[in-house]
Amino acid sequence: MAKFSYTMTDEEAIVAFKKGFMGQGLGNVAILSEKGKTFKLGAPMMTVTVEFDNGICTTKASLAGKAIEATVNTKIELIDGFTKL
Fold this sequence. Notes:
- With 85 residues, the protein is of the alpha+beta class.
- Strands 2-3-4-5-1-6 form a 6-stranded antiparallel sheet, with helices on one face.
- The protein has helices at residues 10-20, 66-77, and strands at residues 2-6, 31-35, 38-43, 46-53, 56-61, 82-84.
- The longest helix is centred in the last third of the chain and has 12 residues, at 66-77.
């Protein structure tokens, strides 16, 4: 589990997050579902949940999802405006 802060609105942070996870290349993680401010990333049975709430972004992984959690956390940390807590 990791926490990040951001200095923008939740909506702006979600758009930046989606842009950060678009494209092709090594280390890409698919966005499987979106429900409001909660996203599931990874593959079935191997997921990482990302939640946005008033300036704080949290990630948590399923048991098998722990294998890709570090990749997700690194990608979020590299998005402009996000700072790891």
